[in-house]
Write a structure and sequence with these properties.
The protein is of the alpha+beta class. The protein contains 7 helices and 10 strands. The chain has one domain: Jelly Rolls, CATH 2.60.120. The chain is globular. The two termini are about 35 Å apart. It binds succinic acid and fe (iii) ion.
Amino acid sequence: MAPRPQDDPDAFAVRLETEGVVVLPGHPFRLTPEEADLVSPHFSDGRAKNISLGPDGAVRGATPDPAAQRRLAALMSRYRGWAESTIQAAAPRYAATLERGRTSLRTREVADGNPSRRKDDRRLHIDAFASQPTGGRRILRMFTNINPDGEARHWHVGEPFEAHARRWAGQLRAPWPGEAWVLRRLGITRAVRTLYDALMLGLHDAAKLDDAYQRDAPRREAAFEAGASWLVFTDSVVHAAVRGRFMLEQTFYLPPQAMAAPETAPARILERITGRTLT
Ligand code: SIN
Ligand code: FE
């Protein structure tokens, strides 16, 4: 269903917040012929997982060649602008407070990785960033499969957030007094890690490190065809990347106050489960 803000300006936001994953109709973002050669492992620095663009305009993970870096930055910033205006048009209530995070160009085959269990996005998880606490803001990501050979990107999508959180909530470690301050002072986190962020990181790690959960947890398969774009609240959708190659991704942060159904925010759900104020 195409977003039709003229009927109910909040219809798309409600759907995204309650369903968690929304595939946009058609192939709404297309590479230009001049950009096509950038879809290649050739421009990686050989170490970083992805090539990425910060909101400040700095490129990371790319070859040092300045001309290539300029072209990569131009592609990622065009993608960022497209993702932002698409969200603003579909969910006007997000427009005023939607905040840009990083943009990434992912050229690795997902199935080939051999990272540690904690870093392995092929294991079911919700997104929570160790160095980047959100303080309760939502993590909203736009993804586009730019595979030039027509290959889909395959994910698994797991149980609803509340069921997921209830599995682990009782056994998560509370931070020791002063921990958030020390992490911030040492530069390990870029903002103070709130109790919310500590619990979310705890959920992320608990799920990824549990082999029995990874084997037995409920899930459905989702295939995103080449050319498709999809939007996901990755902090509440339990997900795992299974296989696929070549993708653009844009991260945004959104304060829960901007949501149409704020009671579905992970912060509110965790507050209900723990009985504590978290942010
Ligand atoms: C993730 O967000 O966990 C990975 C998504 C992907 O690479 O498709
Ligand atoms: Fe993830």
